[in-house]
Design a protein that fits this description.
about 160 residues; mainly alpha; 3 domains
């Protein structure tokens, strides 16, 4: 039985060989299809490996704290089993996405307020630029109409 690393090297070799065959035979349909299939298979294996190792490398799932007996009893009063893998996954998800302390909440609120001010200012700027273009257009139209009928334009001082 071959190792996973050997299998991935075989896939890389196959992609290289099919690429060279495609260069030699031009746009041969069978070679092109085989090359696309080999690339898709390799991408699938890469995605599967990333998914397999993502938790261990990025999330720190190698060590999972064991809940205390007291925490298990308290959770059981609410009908929650802290040893259930689905409950553990839900807790990890919440810990990852919820703020950890009050400072983070304050920081998030300040960022939201800054974003709201920024978006209002941008909206105002867009409105003023649009208004200035409209006024410029009307002014140019007036000048163009004035230029066509010089005898009707009277300037009083």
């Amino acid at each position: 039985m071959q190792s996973k690393r050997q299998g991935s090297q075989d896939e890389e070799d196959a992609i290289g060989d099919l690429g060279r065959a495609l260069q030699l035979h031009g746009l041969d349909g069978k070679v092109k299809v085989a090359l696309e299939q080999a690339k898709a298979k390799r991408l699938f294996h890469i995605a599967k490996e990333k998914q397999m190792f993502a938790g261990a490398l990025n999330e720190g799932d190698l060590y999972e704290p064991v809940p205390s007996e007291q925490a298990i009893k308290e959770a059981a009063e609410f009908g929650v089993d802290l040893r259930d893998p689905r409950v553990k996954a839900a807790i990890r998800h919440m810990q990852k996405h919820l703020p950890k302390n009050v400072e983070e909440l304050v920081y998030e609120k300040q960022n939201m307020e800054k974003w709201e001010k920024f978006s209002k200012i941008c909206g105002l700027i867009v409105f003023l630029v649009s208004l200035s273009f409209a006024m410029f257009h009307l002014l140019m139209r007036y000048v163009a109409l004035s230029a066509k009928k010089p005898d009707q334009v009277h300037i009083e001082l």
